[in-house]
């Protein structure tokens, strides 16, 4: 059995469901299986994935929202309990080999370091093998990778053709073939979860060039054309209306010529990324089909864990980290690098107009669980030995929580009562197995609630009531006053796209559904509602390894690498000193002593050409390089870099001084510093892993001498309440865009 789950793909983006991006491999799978056009997610990443792998509603398994917003309420602590065992654990206990490839956003931040614990890593949740990344996203050319619980590095560079999508596909194919070679009789379960097509949108150049000029007509025209193809394909029923453009999306014709050129290029790059992903998923499917028992392999291909993402904002960006730190990119700056969009030195995200177009024919986008643009995603199911109505469409209302019980039913495994000695909470999902053989099978699910960031909806027997509350691109907002939200009402059996609000015509029905939402919310532990962004992010989280969250003195040793930025010393907005005891060989040495961040932003202290060097990268807009004015001695020495922060607010400048054996050896002025986050890269001693902080050396530029230890001492932050609030907003925006 195989579950494929893409990331941040809208209902109207892939050609299999009428979208503008050709996905021939998905088309082939659909021709041999079934397309589900009323399948639902939670509208956001981590909760969707928790629902998928456990078969429980996301609040019931502790993942009411994302780990970065975790609070002490059991439904929002992001710690999937042992009583909600994953499909991997259940199948493993019934004799299956299990593996998880790609994205894992279900391990809490504070448990994602080498210090563990590893209970909520894939191998601790029932998967024999895992290969991929932890968190909302990673760089596709310079990924932060773990094999099981050990950090590993790509086997080649982007210049040599590396891309994570190809790497993980190769790994998945090899695992599957090897397992079947050794134990051909043993059934397998694979969870294959690419980071694609989540930002950063990294398309190999040959793939993005395939789409040159294909989106010049703009998002209004592309959405209209998608809608017409959806009708022709039968993935939306006759009479479905295309919902109109909202006020938060500009008309394409109102944009300047430069804006149109740039925004079209952003979409060309995304299309290349998604088409390339389809190609790689096709390689996996072809490998499955080459196995002796291929006809008896059940494949679920879920096209997105939520709707298309609007988190690129109105203009899109080439450096989303910079934007999320409150440093906007200008149209002029983006135009200068337009031809580089999608390359390894960029981290792009398209403008929100393309997300709206990509969710045709529905309203709204990712995060907005109240509306289908956030929560309805395509799904294709293939099982040659059992599905006869190949190429068919299924319109029964279904949800991510239904996948696990369907797998258990297909494998003839009862719902677990106890797993590893832990009594199990009930499965919330229902098997959709009856729909495999009967297009008119009775609805498998007649009621389902939705809630994310207090955007709410309740579906019941063909009707849906919904209340939209927050804006995905304004995560600093916390409107509160839920009683003032305007509830809408739609009869989905007659209005597929939520185009006709019937709240005014049927107030009694609306009142009935609102009461049902309250009933379901109580039953599934949704309350208390919490729409805070910055405030919720600011709630103290457990520290990695149980360390003191107020710690200001850190000591690291050689080999400490791939430490998440959230678990590393936070040198931002404060004075600090980094001291290293090193030893250089007689014939000299070179390499990185300590590095944090990468191509988006960061710092690095290293030795090159016999001198101590410090570089600070401020979003590639400003780079400060300090080189010692004396050569480093061979043998043992103590080197240091000290930063004296100006203070007076966030992201201010300061003076940097190098020292060798206690004597000043270089000085420079840094005018601007990063206030919030360096990005999605990591911290490490002895090498620069991931994307390079600077191009002055070739990765990983390992230190060729010896590093005894690196000490980092942080000064007081002394920020005002307003600055603290702004900083929380930056972290909130970063976390939301990287879920």
Q: What does this entry look like structurally?
A:
The protein has 16 helices and 30 strands. The model has no long low-confidence stretch (mean pLDDT 94). Helix content is 23%, strand content 21%. Strand 24 (611-618) and strand 25 form a beta hairpin. With 739 residues, it is of the alpha+beta class. The radius of gyration is 26 Å and the shape is globular.
Major beta sheet, specifics? 10 strands, mixed
Number of strands: 30
Note the overall shape: globular
List low-pLDDT spans: none
Helix content: 10-25%
State the strand order across the main sheet. Answer: 7-6-5-4-8-1-9-10-2-11
The Cα radius of gyration reads 26 Å
Measured by DSSP, the beta-strand proportion falls in 15-25%
Total of DSSP H or I helical runs spanning 4+ residues: 16
